[in-house]
Task: inverse folding
């Protein structure tokens, strides 16, 4: 029986986000909150491993109360339990403070039902760092395996796992002891449409909701803004490029001008090897 | 924590097949500037097995010092072993700043090290500067899907750490014979202390597309209308001997595979010539190609933002312009006897 925990986050959909050009802040009303797309793959992988080896999938997230919706999405994918840790004292956390808080939640979950494997997404589309996963692993003192694009097998008697880690030009096959933490690529699996029974279950599901006071041995100084070594000092709109010279005339004339630009660099066209 | 104890700028040097990838050399270039501004030294930290000979190129690309861990346990990159070496070295010599490439290895290692130290870590930096007086690192990066830039500081902890994107910093000219101080360290680590094992490394046999190494890129966008229309881009690329790039929308439409995607969620490229055809010029695309030598844009919409980002622009229909261009280019080649010969 495996107990797998997937770490997930609710994020604003940065694809359709609108920025307020005056303040350079995000206009939250225009940005619908979604389950971080990479985390859907993390949950899906956990569910697949449960189907292969038996066990249970829990998801955990730190976020504001509406993050319940992201947990429900995970139940649709097939997770069994969801935990939301939510508290004003978590607010403003950078990756170091986030990994601390999420670790405290996992430790608490672990007390009732020891955790064998933790799966994170490659990165969030708002934080966009990929740092939280390895951070959690270090805090729990378990090996982090990032860039995972395939889980080959789990050996429950030996307590080992074998995965593929993506490299620039291929992959490496790595074995680790359990428990460990995986950060998965999108290519690790495809997330199918949720089966109807899961959707029903998700609609009714009520996640466990914990505040800081529900967690054990928490050092308040390591939470939220106070526990975050990095601070955003300044935001600005990326500079608008100046623009170049427009080549005028009819197409024939435009091309002639362009050609003289290209032929200025003719050494580039000479040195090509024949293939 | 006494900040006065922390001195020097470090760059984590990656190694692959006995060579230093360009991202590490770029970081040495960037690190050199920071170190000079602070009046301090630049060091490379090199971890591996049989890698000692790489110390001299590190000096030649700008480092004053190299910290070296050369032991069998470092044969393959593993988070736990590399992290332990880097933590030990950092605690012993106390650098003010450590830079890593924002590569899968660099990010993996930096995240682990920053958690243990603990300190702040800024991801995917694209601009770096340092305050001369205080040594405060100003690490800037695109945020919220590239909609804004943000400068991140780490005021209360040392060392300050950042991962830095490839191809945005510039390596220095190699200075043959330039040398420095090699500091050889060893760490007491047994194989049984490490909980992961690399069983096998598989190099994909199909040749990977590396558009980031191309001198000339012809990139196409949604404006080409269809997969068939996109052939126009491939033909022009063939004619010019160029690599083929694409916008994300084209990749999502399935006209070409992801390794060809230029931009924030694709590859950052810096070719000598970049030709954008039927690409509107969204900010996420621009960040991936804006440092190219000459940028040429062909688009039928005179208002397309790509024209703000190019050196030369043609307002026109790609299906009209590009065939003329191919024909005239071939003619010019013959005329000028530019020998783009395909010898067999
Ligand atoms: C988080 C995030 C990450 C992203 N990452 C990337 C990334 O890495 N790379 C990337 O490219 N995009 C990325 N995008 C998407 C980006 O915002 C744009 O949607 C995308 O670049 C647009 O692609 P396009 O220019 O091909 O298409 P469009 O915006 O549809 O532009 C098509 C252009 O073709 C022109 N055109 C039409 N017909 C012709 C013709 N016959 N001849 C000439 N011109 C013609 C049109 O005038 C138009 O300007 C990202 C977006 C987000 C939110
Ligand atoms: N607030 C959070 N709660 C739970 N898990 C998180 C949170 N933030 C990040 N993660 C996990 O860490 C991964 C990397 O996030 P990031 O470092 O923000 O890019 C995500 O894909 C999640 O799996």
Result:
């Amino acid at each position: 029986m495996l107990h797998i925990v997937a770490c997930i986050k609710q994020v604003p959909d940065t694809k359709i986000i609108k920025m307020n050009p005056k303040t350079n802040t995000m206009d939250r009303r225009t940005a619908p909150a979604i389950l971080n797309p990479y985390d859907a793959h993390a949950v899906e992988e956990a569910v697949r491993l449960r189907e292969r080896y038996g066990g249970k999938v829990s998801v955990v997230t730190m976020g504001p109360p509406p993050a319940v919706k992201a947990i429900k999405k995970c139940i649709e994918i097939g997770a069994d339990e969801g935990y939301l840790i939510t508290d004003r004292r978590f607010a403003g956390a950078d990756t170091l403070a986030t990994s601390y808080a999420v670790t405290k939640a996992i430790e608490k979950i672990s007390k009732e039902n020891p955790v064998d494997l933790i799966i994170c997404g490659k990165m969030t589309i708002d934080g966009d760092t990929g740092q939280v996963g390895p951070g959690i692993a270090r805090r729990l003192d378990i090996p982090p395996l990032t860039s995972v694009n395939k889980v080959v097998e789990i050996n429950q008697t030996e307590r080992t796992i074998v995965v593929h880690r993506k490299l620039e030009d291929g992959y490496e096959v790595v074995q680790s002891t359990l428990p460990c933490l995986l950060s998965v690529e999108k290519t690790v699996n495809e997330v199918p449409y949720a089966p109807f029974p899961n959707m029903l279950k998700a609609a009714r599901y009520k996640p466990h909701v914990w505040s800081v006071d529900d967690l054990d041995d928490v050092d308040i100084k390591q939470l939220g803004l106070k526990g975050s070594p990095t601070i955003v000092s300044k935001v600005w709109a990326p500079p608008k490029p100046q623009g170049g010279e427009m080549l005028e005339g009819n197409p024939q004339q435009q091309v002639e001008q362009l050609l003289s630009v290209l032929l200025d660099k003719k050494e580039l066209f000479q040195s090509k090897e024949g293939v | 924590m006494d900040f006065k104890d922390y001195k020097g700028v470090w760059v984590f040097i990656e190694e692959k097949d006995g060579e230093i990838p360009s991202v590490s050399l770029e970081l040495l270039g960037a690190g050199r500037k920071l170190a000079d501004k602070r009046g301090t030294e630049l060091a490379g930290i090199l971890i591996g097995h049989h890698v000692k000979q790489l110390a001299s190129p590190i000096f030649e690309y700008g480092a004053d010092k190299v910290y070296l861990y050369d032991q069998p346990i470092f044969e393959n990159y593993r988070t736990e072993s590399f992290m332990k070496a880097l933590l030990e070295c950092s605690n012993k010599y106390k650098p003010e700043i450590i830079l890593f490439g924002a590569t899968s290895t660099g990010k993996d290692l930096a995240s682990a090290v920053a958690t243990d130290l603990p300190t702040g870590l800024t991801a995917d930096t694209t601009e770096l500067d340092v305050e001369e007086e205080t040594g405060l690192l100003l690490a800037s990066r695109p945020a919220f899907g590239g909609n804004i830039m943000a400068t991140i500081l780490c005021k209360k902890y040392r060392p300050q750490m950042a991962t830095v994107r490839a191809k945005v910093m510039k390596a220095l000219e190699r200075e043959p014979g330039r040398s420095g101080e090699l500091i050889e360290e060893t760490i007491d680590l047994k194989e049984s202390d490490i909980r992961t094992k690399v069983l096998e490394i598989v190099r994909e046999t199909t040749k990977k597309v590396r558009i980031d190494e191309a001198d000339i890129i012809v990139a196409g966008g949604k404006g080409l209308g269809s997969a068939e229309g996109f052939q126009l881009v491939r033909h022009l690329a063939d004619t010019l001997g160029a690599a083929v790039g694409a916008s994300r929308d084209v990749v999502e439409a399935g006209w070409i595979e992801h390794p060809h995607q230029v931009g924030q969620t694709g590859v950052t490229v810096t070719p000598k010539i970049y030709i954008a055809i039927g690409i509107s010029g969204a900010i996420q695309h621009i960040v991936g190609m804006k440092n190219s030598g000459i940028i040429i844009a062909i688009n039928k919409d005179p208002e397309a933002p790509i024209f703000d980002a190019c050196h030369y622009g043609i307002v026109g229909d790609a299906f009209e312009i590009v065939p003329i261009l191919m024909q005239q280019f071939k003619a010019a080649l013959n005329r000028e006897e530019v020998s783009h010969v395909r010898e067999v």
Q: What stands out?
A: Residues 3-193 of chain B form a domain with the Rossmann fold fold (CATH 3.40.50.620). Residues 338-344 of chain B have pLDDT under 50 and may be disordered. The CA atoms of residues 282 and 289 of chain B lie 11 Å apart.
